[in-house]
Amino acid sequence: MFRILRERFRQGKRTIPYPAGAPPVLPDRLRGLPVLDESRCRAGCQECLTACPTDALFQDGQGLALDLGRCLFCGECTAACPTGSIQFSTDHRLAVRAREDLVVRSGREYALARSLEGEMLRLFGRSLKLRQVSAGGNAAEEADLNVLGTVVFDLGRFGIQFVASPRHADGIVVTGPVSENMKQALFTTHAAVPAPKLVIAVGAEAISGGLFRGRSEVNDGVTDLLPVDLYIPGWPPHPLTILDGLLRLLGRIDARDAARMHPR
Amino acid sequence: MNTSGLTLTRAGQAIPRGSIAALPFADFRRVVIDQAREGLAVAALFGDVPAGSERVDLYVVLADRESSRLGVGKTTLELDAFASLTPDCARVHLFEREIAEQYGVRPEGHPWLKPVRFHGSYRSGHDAWGRGPGEPIVVGVTDFFRVEGEEIHEVAVGPVHAGVIEPGHFRFQCHGEQVFHLEISLGYQHRGIERSLVGGPDKKTAHLMEVVAGDTSIGHATAYCRVVEALAGRQPPIRADALRAIALELERLANHTGDLGALAGDVGFLPTASYCGRLRGDFLNLTALICGSRFGRGMVRPGGVRFDVEPSRVEECSKRLKKALRDVTTAVDLLWNSSSVQARFEGTGTVSLEVATDLGLVGPAARACGLECDSRRDFPSGIYRFAQAPISSWNTGDVFARAYVRWLEIERSAAFIMDQLQSLPDGPIEAPAGALRPDHLAISLVEGWRGEICHVALTDHAGRFARYKIVDPSFHNWMGLAMALRDEQISDFPLCNKSFNLSYCGHDL
Ligand code: SF4
Ligand code: SF4
Known about the structure:
The structure holds two protein chains of two kinds.
Chain A: H1 2-11, E1 34-36, H2 47-51, E2 57-60, E3 63-67, H3 76-80, E4 86-88, E5 103-105, H4 118-124, E6 128-134, H5 140-147, E7 160-162, E8 171-175, H6 180-192, E9 198-202, H7 204-208, E10 230-232, H8 239-249, H9 255-261
Parallel strand pairs in A: 6-7, 6-8, 8-9, 9-10
Antiparallel strand pairs in A: 1-4, 2-3, 3-5
Chain B: E1 7-9, E2 14-16, E3 21-22, H1 25-37, E4 41-48, E5 57-64, E6 69-76, E7 81-83, H2 93-103, E8 106-108, E9 152-157, E10 169-175, E11 178-185, H3 193-197, H4 205-210, H5 217-232, H6 238-266, H7 270-291, E12 300-301, E13 304-305, H8 311-336, H9 339-345, H10 353-359, H11 363-367, H12 375-378, H13 399-422, E14 440-448, E15 451-459, E16 465-471, H14 473-484, H15 493-500, H16 504-508
Parallel strand pairs in B: 3-6, 7-8
Antiparallel strand pairs in B: 1-6, 2-14, 4-5, 5-6, 9-10, 10-11, 12-13, 14-15, 15-16
């Protein structure tokens, strides 16, 4: 017993204060929110589009765009770009409420997730129970969801909890491209959650199918299968990206936190 | 190794497809059975339909841990049925089921011929279970073993489980609390990875390798790169080898630490559970310090690695590793010193050395039974040709042994990384691999944190992948978990399951 107490003392308190306190220190090589500067692009250049493994980059009438719903944050585009027009910042905040908000463009502000409103916010704002469904997931997204339960992130202090039955849940968190063999189980789980309910898609595969998009063994993610309330991009998303997204959804991050975390 | 008509090669070497011994089926069958009895591992056994052919070829890769040699052989099946090897060689049981499902050929006499991943045959019109082309295949619907008798009851769990974990289906035949038999039925995570690799390598290939099992990104990416480099006939620079090994050992540290925490949590020993939960993150963050991704995504690529470490990063890495190792040591010491924990670990979920050998278990699960196998030593490649961590094993085959082997490996991997960081070879980190030789075969074996990862590639006449076979260590080991549950209390299932911590996606591909 003494050993246990001594060790408890030695290991110390490890919970990060997020979203309060100083901005989180993230690895300098982390590939977070990409920043496009199309003004530097060479006319007619397609290098980044050719290099991208998931067709996350595209050009349309409004110019060059990067769809975070498909992005692996692999940096192949940055490596291929002759002009340095695509850079990845270490900004971990990426979650949005609408599929189209995942598209990053040159000189346009990225629209982070707004809070739930009205009845939904009243119901879930202080207590959110979630059921996780891995549908062709590769264990990395699942691992980073599990990490939120550790002392470092201590998800419980926000009233958010992963529960063992859909009937106890307020929503589901989906990972993976939705393998054909998990499609039915996904629908069954979703149906078993009492209404009103939330659907949260975590990772490129859950949002768009990612690398597996278009293959007959999968369903290109959950986006076209169920109404998604929160998209958390990444491959896998950093635990802080997930935490940030959940807290934004619940209106637990205010403008002050945001300004302090990323002083302009 | 008695060559017995097999073509000899080594991991990381490419051989012309034309040089592979083509045996009549009866000889093929006999050599596999005989060599397995002699103690050779079946690293891979898989099917292929060559372009323009109607018939299925079977390939086998036998691995001799003593001589580091591999024996490769093939046979062409004349019919859609062949005499199953499983009754004489249990360790191929799942390979044969996989071949049956993928190619619609039937291993006659297989004792439990059931689908593995529940998908249609790759050869339309040929189905091992005689299902018609349009007939729907429903995952999890198959004949399950049933134990009949008074007071026997069946417990079915999954596919969706209580925790944040991948899906799989488990069926227990119980007498009261006692488990007579556990049957594990997977396939829910099937994403068609092997099929999507055909025609590559292309710009998706390296990324796909990183999610074969997303918690083993470095392991599978390294195995892939070794195959490509063998086929291209180019070795990566030595500094890249060292950095790959550092990343591979960090992957082992993170996962083993997480597993020890999960085991502690399962027996309600919360101090170690919570410290290890955090420390697992500290190791992942070290990988992120090197390459920006906690899971090592983007780090290992054909020809070398994508990220170098400058001296200040090496120093930071060593400093943080030292601190994390100290914290893990004290956290895990609490486990070994708690009699209540030891009472739950010892004697639970025992797998005998004999069963482990028969099934061909790999990795820590095998070493926990006293089976001395470790690809880093047995088939060394890259920096492991020059530097090795001592092999870690135990002999009780129970939950304790699987936990303790992990702990030994944590200590030794950490020491190995420290050494490597201190003596990093100079030079470049990448040397372009170049085009792949046409009509060749190459094999790689990498000791991932769960055990031996085997990749085999066959190129076509244009140097593209005609067939790419992946064997995740979990493929060998799931049956080990089923055997560990024999005569155990059903309430010990979560603990036994965590002590194996196998991959669903790596199995389902
Ligand atoms: S980082 Fe994203 S956009 Fe860039 S190449 Fe990779 S997947 Fe494509
Ligand atoms: S590669 Fe660079 S310069 Fe070319 S289109 Fe892409 S971002 Fe612009």
